[in-house]
Protein backbone atom coordinates (compact mmCIF):
# COMPACT_ATOMS: atom_id res chain seq x y z
CA UNK A 1 0.00 0.00 0.00
CA UNK A 2 1.33 3.41 -1.04
CA UNK A 3 0.47 6.27 1.23
CA UNK A 4 -0.27 9.74 -0.07
CA UNK A 5 1.75 12.67 1.25
CA UNK A 6 -0.05 14.50 3.99
CA UNK A 7 -0.33 18.27 3.76
CA UNK A 8 0.04 20.20 6.98
CA UNK A 9 -2.86 22.55 7.61
CA UNK A 10 -2.05 25.90 9.11
CA UNK A 11 -4.70 27.12 11.53
CA UNK A 12 -3.87 30.70 10.54
CA UNK A 13 -5.05 29.86 7.01
CA UNK A 14 -8.37 28.61 8.43
CA UNK A 15 -8.81 31.81 10.42
CA UNK A 16 -8.12 33.92 7.35
CA UNK A 17 -10.68 31.95 5.41
CA UNK A 18 -13.22 32.41 8.22
CA UNK A 19 -12.48 36.13 8.28
CA UNK A 20 -12.94 36.40 4.55
CA UNK A 21 -16.35 34.76 4.86
CA UNK A 22 -17.43 36.44 8.08
CA UNK A 23 -15.83 39.81 7.31
CA UNK A 24 -18.62 41.07 5.05
CA UNK A 25 -21.24 39.80 7.49
CA UNK A 26 -19.53 41.47 10.45
CA UNK A 27 -19.16 44.64 8.37
CA UNK A 28 -22.88 44.64 7.62
CA UNK A 29 -23.73 44.85 11.33
CA UNK A 30 -20.84 47.08 12.37
CA UNK A 31 -22.10 50.66 12.90
CA UNK A 32 -18.68 52.01 11.93
CA UNK A 33 -16.64 52.09 8.76
CA UNK A 34 -12.98 52.73 8.04
CA UNK A 35 -12.38 55.82 5.89
CA UNK A 36 -9.81 56.36 3.15
CA UNK A 37 -7.67 58.18 5.70
CA UNK A 38 -7.82 55.15 8.02
CA UNK A 39 -10.14 56.55 10.67
CA UNK A 40 -13.14 54.64 11.94
CA UNK A 41 -16.32 56.73 11.81
CA UNK A 42 -20.05 55.99 12.05
CA UNK A 43 -21.40 54.60 8.78
CA UNK A 44 -24.45 56.84 9.06
CA UNK A 45 -22.19 59.91 9.26
CA UNK A 46 -20.17 58.81 6.24
CA UNK A 47 -23.33 58.11 4.24
CA UNK A 48 -24.78 61.52 5.12
CA UNK A 49 -21.52 63.38 4.37
CA UNK A 50 -21.12 61.57 1.03
CA UNK A 51 -24.68 62.47 0.10
CA UNK A 52 -23.96 66.14 0.84
CA UNK A 53 -20.84 65.95 -1.34
CA UNK A 54 -22.74 64.36 -4.21
CA UNK A 55 -25.75 66.67 -4.20
CA UNK A 56 -23.75 69.83 -3.59
CA UNK A 57 -21.37 69.03 -6.45
CA UNK A 58 -24.28 68.32 -8.77
CA UNK A 59 -25.86 71.61 -7.81
CA UNK A 60 -22.66 73.59 -8.29
CA UNK A 61 -21.99 72.06 -11.70
CA UNK A 62 -25.53 72.68 -12.95
CA UNK A 63 -26.11 75.47 -15.47
CA UNK A 64 -28.03 78.24 -13.67
CA UNK A 65 -29.62 79.21 -17.01
CA UNK A 66 -31.71 76.01 -16.98
CA UNK A 67 -33.76 77.18 -14.02
CA UNK A 68 -35.95 74.09 -13.51
CA UNK A 69 -33.02 71.66 -13.53
CA UNK A 70 -30.94 74.02 -11.41
CA UNK A 71 -33.77 74.32 -8.83
CA UNK A 72 -34.12 70.53 -8.66
CA UNK A 73 -30.43 69.99 -7.94
CA UNK A 74 -30.28 72.95 -5.55
CA UNK A 75 -33.29 71.64 -3.63
CA UNK A 76 -31.70 68.19 -3.37
CA UNK A 77 -28.50 69.78 -2.06
CA UNK A 78 -30.41 71.85 0.51
CA UNK A 79 -32.29 68.77 1.69
CA UNK A 80 -29.13 66.70 2.10
CA UNK A 81 -27.44 69.57 3.98
CA UNK A 82 -30.45 69.93 6.31
CA UNK A 83 -30.45 66.18 6.93
CA UNK A 84 -26.71 66.19 7.63
CA UNK A 85 -26.93 69.15 10.00
CA UNK A 86 -29.96 67.81 11.87
CA UNK A 87 -28.21 64.50 12.50
CA UNK A 88 -24.56 65.47 12.96
CA UNK A 89 -24.19 69.09 14.08
CA UNK A 90 -22.50 69.03 17.48
CA UNK A 91 -22.22 65.25 17.66
CA UNK A 92 -19.13 64.43 19.72
CA UNK A 93 -18.40 61.34 17.62
CA UNK A 94 -17.50 63.50 14.61
CA UNK A 95 -16.99 67.17 15.60
CA UNK A 96 -13.21 66.87 15.67
CA UNK A 97 -12.98 65.03 12.36
CA UNK A 98 -11.38 66.86 9.45
CA UNK A 99 -14.28 66.08 7.13
CA UNK A 100 -16.78 67.52 9.60
CA UNK A 101 -14.74 70.70 10.15
CA UNK A 102 -14.28 71.23 6.42
CA UNK A 103 -17.97 70.66 5.66
CA UNK A 104 -18.84 73.24 8.33
CA UNK A 105 -16.51 75.68 6.50
CA UNK A 106 -18.33 74.97 3.23
CA UNK A 107 -21.70 75.63 4.85
CA UNK A 108 -20.43 78.89 6.36
CA UNK A 109 -19.06 80.01 2.97
CA UNK A 110 -22.42 79.34 1.34
CA UNK A 111 -24.27 81.11 4.14
CA UNK A 112 -21.99 84.17 3.91
CA UNK A 113 -22.45 84.38 0.16
CA UNK A 114 -26.23 84.04 0.22
CA UNK A 115 -26.65 86.41 3.16
CA UNK A 116 -24.78 89.10 1.21
CA UNK A 117 -26.04 88.39 -2.32
CA UNK A 118 -29.57 87.20 -1.57
CA UNK A 119 -31.18 83.74 -1.61
CA UNK A 120 -31.61 83.50 -5.37
CA UNK A 121 -28.21 84.84 -6.42
CA UNK A 122 -25.91 82.76 -8.63
CA UNK A 123 -22.64 81.78 -7.04
CA UNK A 124 -19.62 83.58 -8.41
CA UNK A 125 -17.00 81.43 -10.16
CA UNK A 126 -14.56 82.25 -7.36
CA UNK A 127 -16.88 81.04 -4.59
CA UNK A 128 -17.91 78.03 -6.65
CA UNK A 129 -14.32 76.90 -7.27
CA UNK A 130 -13.42 77.47 -3.60
CA UNK A 131 -16.32 75.29 -2.49
CA UNK A 132 -15.57 72.58 -5.07
CA UNK A 133 -11.96 72.54 -3.85
CA UNK A 134 -13.14 72.22 -0.24
CA UNK A 135 -15.44 69.36 -1.25
CA UNK A 136 -12.46 67.58 -2.81
CA UNK A 137 -10.61 67.95 0.48
CA UNK A 138 -13.60 66.54 2.40
CA UNK A 139 -13.75 63.58 0.05
CA UNK A 140 -10.09 62.76 0.77
CA UNK A 141 -10.98 62.37 4.44
CA UNK A 142 -14.01 60.19 3.79
UniProtKB/TrEMBL annotation:
Coiled coil: none
Regions crossing the membrane: none
Region Disordered: start-end pairs: 1-36
Alphabetized Pfam families for the sequence: PSII_Pbs27 (PF13326)
Signal sequence residues: none
Alphabetical list of InterPro entries matching this protein: PSII_Psb27, PSII_Psb27_sf
GO biological process, alphabetically ordered: photosystem II assembly; photosystem II repair
PANTHER family on file: PHOTOSYSTEM II D1 PRECURSOR PROCESSING PROTEIN PSB27-H2, CHLOROPLASTIC, PHOTOSYSTEM II REPAIR PROTEIN PSB27-H1, CHLOROPLASTIC
Protein name: Photosystem II 11 kDa protein
Species assigned in the record: Chenopodium quinoa
Amino acid sequence: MISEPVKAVDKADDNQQDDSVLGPIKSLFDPNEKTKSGKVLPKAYLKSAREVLKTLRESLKEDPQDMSKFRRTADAAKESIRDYLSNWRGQQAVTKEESYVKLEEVFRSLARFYSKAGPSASLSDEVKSEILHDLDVVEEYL
